[in-house]
Please model this.
Amino acid sequence: MKRVIVLGSAGSGKSTLTQKLSEILKLPVIHLDKYYWKPNWEPTSNEEWDEVVRGFTMKEQWIIDGNYSRTLDIRIQRADLIIYLDMPTSLCIYRVLKRRLMYHKKSRPDMNEECPEKLDWEFFRWVWNYRKRSRMKTINKLESVRTQKQIIIVKSRKEVFDLINRLEQSNEI
Model:
């Protein structure tokens, strides 16, 4: 296993799991948010973003966390394993609020240094509506590649801990 994708709503635990997987599997981490957002939360253009993602996926080893559904096919094509954190909305909202407090006026480690943590109404609604808006699209996409890719869907913190424990014990899933 050399190339891993971690997907899920904001606040689902993607970055935390990615860091843990990196320690266990000895793979480099790519947090997509860190590269998509330019200073002061300016987004990267679609054309430039496609090239950035293609460049990341051409590397031999990586763990990439982030959704960015428009470029998901590019990542899936090269991935060995896809982990989808299908966490409850209430947990994601709690974590987003907690993260906002922890990184007040600072940038998170998985974010561009010139993008201080913020929580506005638009982002809150995005997290709140994630399951209704994006969940089934992601699940359907994963179902369409299930015969070609190893896919793990994790639905609780306990399942995340179990996954980490299995990896720590055997370095395999």
User: Anything to note?
Assistant: The first strand starts at residue 3 and ends at 8.
